[in-house]
Specification:
Layout (H helix, E strand, L loop, with lengths): L2 H24 L2 E5 L3 E4 L8 E5 L4 E7 L5 E5 L5 E5 L3 E3 L26 E6 L4 E2 L4 E9 L2 E2 L9 E8 L16 E3 L6 E5 L3 E10 L15 E5 L3
Length: 228
């Protein structure tokens, strides 16, 4: 005897959820890529790459993933994918595709190679490191490593960012406890961190310590040093 009322309640609930999802899809935020950025099938670095978002290109962000530093985005063909949130920056209004004037002067003068990628081989994201002393292993694809002061096309040297965000990408990278330079061309470095939660990120710099155009930057990883 209560079946019609139950069916009506279910229909109303489904309609409500459908309206909510449609509204979310209809009014996305506009962001653009700060650097050449991998797009993945799921919100994790272990997921398959489904594309590359070039530096400066805009994308629609549908939502931020709960408890994860990832955005769900809608690609030009309408499909959904995921991108690490620190690789994007918001824009007030959408720009026409291919409008390069908005990007002039933002990045350094040294050109990065196509499909170049820098990444942290180890430690993995979320690694627990007793004692706080460990080696960070640097990875680089489609570009070469050269010491600071050596001007050679499609090369650079590593800078490790510790507990900080990206610096201005058209200026020399700062040299301090949060921006560690490896100007001799090192591809690994020993780090000693105090107890707590820390972030690590790699940024490639040219012969003058200026990020490339577009910048070659890794995803940020978090490590934990236990207090015992």
């Amino acid at each position: 005897m209560y079946r019609p009322q139950l069916i009506g309640l279910l229909a109303a609930t489904l309609m409500l959820f459908g309206t909510t999802l449609s509204a979310q899809d209809a009014a996305p935020a506009y962001y653009r890529a700060r650097v050449n950025s991998n797009i993945r099938a799921q919100p994790t670095t272990n997921a398959n790459k489904v594309g590359l978002l070039p530096a400066g290109e805009q994308v629609e962000v549908l939502r931020e993933m709960p408890d994860k530093p990832w955005y769900q985005i809608r690609l030009a063909d309408g499909t959904h994918a995921y991108i690490f949130n620190e690789l994007l920056e918001p824009v007030a209004t959408p720009l026409a595709r291919g409008d390069e004037t908005a990007l002039s002067g933002e990045f350094g003068p040294s050109q990065a190679a196509d499909d170049s990628e820098v990444y942290i081989i180890w430690p993995y994201d979320g690694e627990v490191i007793p004692g706080g002393e460990f080696w960070v292993r640097f990875g680089l694809r489609n570009m070469g490593v050269a010491p600071a002061g050596v001007e050679k096309a499609f090369t650079g040297h590593h800078h490790l960012l510790v507990n900080t965000d990206l610096p201005p990408l058209n200026q020399p990278i700062p040299n301090d406890d949060n921006h560690i330079h490896y100007g001799r061309g090192q591809t690994e470095a020993k780090v000693d961190l105090p107890p707590g939660t820390h972030t690590l990120q790699l940024l490639l710099g040219d012969h003058n310590h200026v990020p490339h155009n577009p910048p070659v930057v890794s995803q940020k990883v978090t490590v934990v040093v236990p207090d015992y």
